Amino acid sequence: MRNLIWVIDDDPIYRMIISHNIRTIAPESAIVEHDALVELVQMMEDGRFEEIELPDYIFLDINLPEIDAWVFLEKITEDQHIARMISAKIIVVSSSINPKDKSRAMRCPQVVSFESKPLSKERILQIISNN
Known about the structure:
about 130 residues
């Protein structure tokens, strides 16, 4: 089964590693990497989000430059114009160990998991297999 997977993280080495791990366990998947959320949020606000193919999975870092993951999660939870996003499964991947971050992330209906970095191949496989 082909999945479209977004990897959103400002660290190019981490993006490379997680993308490689995903390709290893799900070679049929298409992976799109983003280093920030600015463009995606701008597309939402401009009503241009309908123009792009939405992912099946999003591996999302919390701490990103300019616009963090919290803004993105709030926008997709509250914005009626982004109803298509409801089917995306979001995996928040962070170096944060703060339980409040996990609790906050899990309030978004699309978030299926909150994971600590680094994310192993085995854990990626579990997440994709179970969701």
